[in-house]
Amino acid sequence: MNDEFQVEFFELESGNVPFLKFLNSLTKIERAEVLANIEEFRIIKSKNELVPSQLSKFLKDGIFELRVKHQTRITRSLYFF
Asked: d(Cα 25, Cα 18) in Å, to the nearest integer?
């Protein structure tokens, strides 16, 4: 049994993956920061540890946000289980 937490991106029937469009709208540095935070989140969840509130926040109805602070702004990516 594989206990690794896996991250999957939502894909529309058209094959479009909205999160990839979001990533492509970011600068190279911002994109790297978002992906690094996703990986940090994945590792924490794989260890069954509590995700720090500065990384992730519960919004409502089972929806969470992954918050990434960049030099001049914060990006938020919504996710659910």
From this structure: 11
